[in-house]
Design brief:
278 residues, alpha+beta, 60s Ribosomal Protein L30, Chain: A, five-stranded mixed β-sheet, 8 helices, disordered C terminus
Length: 278
């Protein structure tokens, strides 16, 4: 090896590898567009499901962002109402209305019991009338308890014809319930004894007895649109399940619906709110 070879420098060349296209930044732009589109989609879905009040608030923000935020700030900082405070007040107001409704129906039930007690014509029936508060409202039941198999207290046996004192009793009840704006549902129930006719069963009998009660009450104080449902349950919902033929299973139930459980009343409230918004 010559001296020139020993002194020749060694040159190392490093080639810079080029990254593939998939390692670039283009995918980030596409992903950002996708995330933005999804956010917009879910925002629209959220807005569609909100109440009119929320929609109007969002509309107000986009129409005048500066003024809207200014008013919102004043609401919290200068003693205005905040959403949390509004929610608490609404909750308190709802609880108050529930208590008032319960008291109103309880008072009506007590008045009915007092009216029956003080009436010389129907006072003897007081032990066969049950008045109680239930989750759906005030329930008044006319419960048969005849100790004779061939007789009935409120109706002719096997018939929907009211006995004279039953008509007086229903009239007294209607006089009190007609003062309420609550809707009413009437149920008819029988014992498990079969009817003599195959074409007229306990289903027909229970429904007819409920309807007889409705007719008497409507000519005695109920409004024509106050009764919203008539139901015949035959011997399906027995009062004494262990004794299906017990006469106490024969009864008519008058339910004064609590406004919170009354679908008809909710329909009226919704239509009133819509009318006020329009």
């Amino acid at each position: 090896m010559s001296d020139d070879d020993k002194q020749r420098p060694i040159i190392v060349v490093k080639k810079k590898g080029k990254h593939g296209g998939h390692h670039g930044g283009a995918w980030k732009v596409a992903y950002a567009d996708f995330v933005t589109a999804m956010m917009a989609f879910f925002l629209v879905m959220w807005l569609v499901s909100q109440s009119d009040a929320v929609k109007k608030a969002v509309e107000g923000y986009f129409n005048d962002p500066v003024g809207f935020m200014k008013n919102a700030g004043q609401g919290v900082m200068q003693g205005g109402t905040s959403p949390i405070k509004d929610f608490k007040e609404q909750k308190q107001e709802m609880a108050k209305k529930i208590e008032e409704e319960k008291k109103k129906l309880t008072d009506a039930g007590n008045k009915i019991k007092e009216t029956i007690r003080e009436s010389a014509e129907i006072a003897k029936l007081k032990d066969f009338v049950e008045v109680e508060m239930t989750p759906e409202g005030l329930r008044i039941q006319l419960i048969d308890a005849s100790d004779k198999s061939d007789s009935s207290i409120f109706f002719d046996l096997g018939s929907a014809k009211l006995k004279p004192k039953t008509a007086l009793l229903l009239s007294a009840i209607a006089g009190e319930l007609g003062k309420l704006r609550n809707h009413i549902m009437i149920e008819g129930h029988t014992d498990a004894r079969p009817m003599m006719s195959e074409s007229y069963t306990n289903w027909e009998l229970s429904a007819d007895r409920a309807n007889s009660a409705r007719r008497q009450m409507e000519i005695s104080g109920l409004r024509s649109n106050q009764v919203v449902e008539i139901r015949g349950d035959a011997d399906v919902n027995l009062r004494i399940p262990s004794a299906p033929e017990d006469p106490r299973n024969r009864r008519v139930a008058i339910i004064v619906l609590d406004e919170a459980h009354d679908p008809k009343f909710k329909e009226v409230e919704v239509s009133s709110e819509n009318a006020s918004l329009n």
